[in-house]
Design a protein that fits this description.
Layout: H1 4-23, H2 30-35, H3 37-47, E1 64-67, H4 73-82, H5 124-137, E2 144-149, H6 156-167, E3 173-179, E4 182-183, E5 186-187, H7 188-191, H8 197-203, E6 207-211, H9 217-229, E7 237-242, H10 265-273
Parallel strand pairs: 1-2, 2-3, 3-7, 6-7
Antiparallel strand pairs: 4-5
Helix pairs in contact: 1-3, 1-4, 1-10, 3-4, 3-9, 5-6
Length: 282
């Protein structure tokens, strides 16, 4: 378990990793990665029961995490490396040919921490449901977590999986939606309004929690801990987590334009000037 101050320092370093990783190949998705940093740091350093040194695909006897909106791979790769799954120096290979750190997570290169290929939006909740149901069938009392983008909720498969989870009482599943209101072509309200997400998920039979500031590490941890207390009670759990796309860099924040655009040299310098190096750059 890390203290709040320690977690904040990790968040700063992870954000440095993100902008540097995306800048180097001039390709990637910094906006959502920066916005979800607190969630990943809270999950991997304080919440998740996992063993980075003994990673295996089955994950028996430990918690599992599935990233559905796989385009925010930079934040996941950084946190995986910083928590001990692979050397941080490998972050320098992001999006390079033959790298294990592809733009969207893949499994064929055997990157520790990654159990499914993701990035084809809408599929991750189905996988999480299957993994959680398998744990129940195997008598494994550990939990399954998943993360999704709000724009991803425009995919029909999400709602099929939502129905399945409640129908089968998959109550060892804690999912979260990054509600930043942005997607590649603009705001979610402009592209396809999502309406009342709490009412939607509750109508599909889920227990719904709100995290009103997903960029506040303490609130994220408190919300995840509350979610854990609600497991085993017959309902899957959904956390609606409000974040700011591009959080941490003032010229990126709350702009859909940084969904999938890499900073140039000048912008990288400006971004790094706002983020303290706390663990050492890779």
């Amino acid at each position: 378990m890390k203290t709040t101050d320690e977690l904040k320092k990790i968040c700063s370093q992870v954000r440095r990793d993100i902008v540097r990783m995306v800048h180097a190949p001039q390709s990637g998705h910094p906006g959502g990665s920066l916005g979800c940093t607190e969630y990943f740091v809270a999950l991997y350093f304080n919440i998740l029961k996992h063993n980075p040194q003994k990673f295996n695909m089955e994950g028996m006897g430990e918690d599992l995490f599935f990233l559905s909106n796989g385009h925010i791979s930079p934040v996941w790769y950084s946190v995986l490396a910083r928590s001990g799954y692979f050397p941080t120096k490998e972050l320098a290979t992001f999006r390079k040919l033959n790298s294990r750190l592809q733009g969207h997570p893949t499994t064929h290169e055997g990157l520790p921490g990654v159990r499914i290929a993701s990035g084809s939006l809408g599929q991750g909740l189905s996988v999480a449901c299957g993994a959680a149901l398998a744990k129940k069938l195997n008598g494994d009392t550990n939990l399954v977590y998943s993360l999704h983008g709000d724009g991803e909720l425009q995919e029909g498969q999400i709602w099929e999986a939502a129905l399945f989870a409640s129908a089968h009482k998959i109550d060892n599943l804690i999912s979260a939606v990054d509600v930043n209101g942005q997607q590649i072509d603009g705001t979610t309200d402009k592209v396809m309004p999502l309406g009342d997400l709490r009412a939607k998920w509750e109508s599909f039979g889920w227990d719904v929690l709100s995290c009103n500031d997903g960029n506040n590490i303490e609130e994220v941890i408190n919300t995840l801990n509350t979610a854990k207390k609600k497991t085993g009670k017959g309902k899957p759990i959904m956390i609606l987590m409000k974040t700011a796309m591009g959080f941490g860099d003032d010229f990126m924040v709350n702009s859909h334009k940084w969904h999938g655009v890499a900073p140039n040299d000048e912008q990288l310098t400006k971004a790094l000037a706002q983020l303290n190096e706390t663990l050492g750059d890779y």
